[in-house]
Design a protein that fits this description.
heterodimer, A: 2 domains, six-stranded mixed beta barrel, elongated, B: Rossmann fold, six-stranded mixed sheet, four-stranded antiparallel sheet, 35% helix, 31% strand
């Protein structure tokens, strides 16, 4: 009876309740978005790096992968050495650089990946077939690259490397056949990327036996620290990091995101408390006569408190339900805006809904809504019966 | 045998910086099965007396005993329980819960008393039939007329089979015809064994009672059998 009564009481003033619900929904949506933001980007970053199961990144000392000039020389030897490690089950070298493709009379700028098809780590095949080791005439395209070149599976492309824009002369040009359409895991939105086998890429960009990075798959997660430790000792010119370490660095750099989300999350909780408390206080004040009557009839203070708290909880529950929908929609839109920033992988997500964290946020909201009902509940339970009835009668 | 005894009740309270002596030593005995009207002009202290008799206010001095239990000695929780189970209240402005149906309003005190749903539902319907509103049981309080609301309030007051029913100006908001219906109902309730104390300034209602206590200026002026 308590809940039915609570819901009907909320329905007494539909417009007022609707406005309060809208306010709670907005505050809840903000809290949920902040919860998703607080840890979402680092979880998304971790998932992205572990997408193909490679737990270790090896890049030139002090650089980021795909820095134009930063490559690892003597790539074949380094890769052979890494593959010889007893805890390493796969090593995937990648060389990145600028490429161009002829489209009629013009050149389309592309980003090229040189990969080892036997241990590829940075794309997923979506259509067609993958490259094979030794396929020196095959090429893989991302959807944006295919769109810009108007290319389809089986088409032949004229790909140019080592182009000097000043004299518009190609040092190297190759005819390559489109084998497959792929999604590159680390591309930013609409990035036109292509992939060829590593030796072809090395020739195209004029970096024989070089690679931008190599990613390693360890036997199991427990072996990762051992491999990292060994490689740091053996290859001091290389930057060796496990994904877990990269996530820690990432987290340290994004600490302001977390602080921002905590502050805004707290603000939204305060707004929720104020909304619920204000509405219930107004409602209780309007119904003091009714409450005094109930007390006179023998309804105890706990019953009155329970009733007011039930109204606060019902209000928060309804507002939170609306807020979840609103929060998810808002998060999607914000994610679209943020991940369209140049240089950010499109697959990265700033707002990651996790059942556990969302559950905690929901529980905190419900608790908050209930706590917000404490003052009006106390007001209702402590109203003097006779004086209130006397005031009502006059 | 006395159902209720009140001795030397005084009630003082501050109003606008002045001390108001609402009751100046009122004593009253209510026997089981009686129908008493407390009459008097507005402001004479009759509602205050009713509040003290019903344990919803505390006297500045004096005491009230219901069925041998001194109300002043009870903790708030026990006093609330006593009001729930041994007393029934009817107010001038009905004070039904507008969001509940007539049946749900009558069920409310029984729900608080822990009576099982099925049992209290049947009892509520029975009581609504008793007050002549069986056909209106599913109507919200706001859909009822004044007379109907007061009859629902009487059914609600009878829900837990009280020893004493207290009514404060029960016809004050009603026209003559519907007021008469309520008076007829009170007579029937009393005839069926419920003790009644009714506060009124309505002379007609007072004559319906078996005994009229007339008050003036916070004190009992006369007690007459009708």
């Amino acid at each position: 009876m308590t809940l039915v009564w609570a819901l009907r009481n909320l329905g007494r003033h539909p417009l007022r309740t609707a406005l309060s619900l809208a306010g709670i929904a907005v505050a809840s949506a903000m809290l949920l978005d902040m919860v998703m933001l607080s840890g979402g980007i680092e979880r998304s970053f971790e998932r992205l790096l572990l997408g193909r199961g490679f737990q270790i990144r090896v890049s030139p000392k002090g650089t980021l992968p795909f820095d134009a000039e930063a490559t690892i020389a003597d790539a074949a030897r380094v890769v052979a050495r890494l593959r010889a490690d007893p805890d390493v089950v796969a090593a995937a070298p990648v060389l990145g650089g600028a490429l161009y493709a002829r489209a009629g009379d013009s050149l389309v700028t592309l980003f090229g990946y040189g990969i080892d098809p036997s241990a590829q780590s940075i794309y997923r095949l979506e259509r067609g077939r993958d490259l094979t080791v030794g396929d020196t005439v095959g090429i893989l395209l991302s959807a944006p690259a295919a769109a810009r070149l108007a290319a389809a599976l089986g088409d032949t492309l004229r790909v140019v490397g080592r182009l000097d824009p000043g004299i518009a002369a190609a040092a190297v040009e190759r005819r390559l056949v489109v084998r497959g359409m792929v999604r590159w895991l680390y591309d930013y939105r609409d990035q036109p990327s292509v992939g060829v086998v590593l030796p072809v890429m090395q020739r195209l960009v004029g970096a024989p036996d070089h690679m931008s990075l190599v990613v390693l798959k360890a036997r199991d997660d427990a072996a990762v620290p051992r491999v990292v430790g060994r490689l740091r000792g053996a290859e001091p010119r290389l930057e060796v990091n496990s994904v877990a370490q990269l996530v820690v660095h990432f987290r340290e750099r994004l600490v302001y995101f977390r602080q921002l989300s905590y502050i805004l999350g707290t603000v939204s909780l305060i707004v929720t408390v104020l909304l619920v408390a204000t509405l219930l206080t107004i409602t209780v004040n309007e119904r003091l006569g009714e409450i005094a009557t109930l007390r006179a009839l023998g309804v105890g203070r706990p019953g009155i408190v329970r009733q007011v708290l039930a109204e606060g909880t019902a209000l928060t529950l309804l507002g939170t339900a609306l807020g979840i929908g609103l929060g998810v929609l808002t998060a999607r839109r914000l994610d679209q805006i943020l991940t369209s920033f140049p240089g950010l992988p499109a697959a990265l997500s700033f707002f990651v809904p996790e059942p556990r964290t969302l559950g905690i946020a929901g529980a905190i909201l419900l608790l908050t809504g209930s706590v917000a009902g404490l003052y009006p509940a106390w007001l209702a339970a402590s109203a003097p019966i006779a004086a209130t009835l006397r005031a009502e009668a006059t | 045998m006395s159902l209720l005894v009140a001795r030397d009740l005084r009630k003082d309270y501050a109003m606008g910086g002045e001390q108001v002596h609402a009751l100046k030593g009122v004593s009253l005995v209510v026997a089981r099965g009686e129908y008493i009207a407390i009459a008097g002009p507005s402001g004479c202290g009759k509602s205050t007396l009713l509040h003290l008799l019903g344990g919803i206010d505390t006297p500045s001095a004096g005491w009230v005993e219901l069925e041998g239990v001194r109300l002043g000695s009870l903790r708030d929780r026990d006093l609330t329980r006593l009001r729930l189970t041994r007393l029934g209240f009817v107010f001038q402005r009905f004070h039904l819960l507008p969001v509940l149906s007539a049946r749900e309003n009558v069920e409310l005190p029984m729900a608080e008393a822990g009576i099982p749903t099925r049992e209290r539902r049947l009892r509520a319907i029975e009581l609504l039939e008793y007050v002549g509103l069986g056909h209106r049981r599913d109507h919200r309080a706001t859909q009822l007329s004044g007379g109907e609301m007061q009859r629902v309030a009487i059914a609600r007051a009878l829900a837990n089979r009280p020893a004493l029913l207290l009514a404060d100006e029960p016809t004050g908001e009603l026209d003559a015809a519907t007021g008469q219906e309520v008076l007829d109902l009170f007579r029937r309730v009393n005839a069926d064994g419920t003790t009644l104390v009714v506060v009124t300034h309505d002379a007609k209602l007072a004559t319906e009672a078996g005994k009229v206590v007339r008050m003036l200026d916070g004190a009992i002026e006369t007690v007459d059998d009708t």
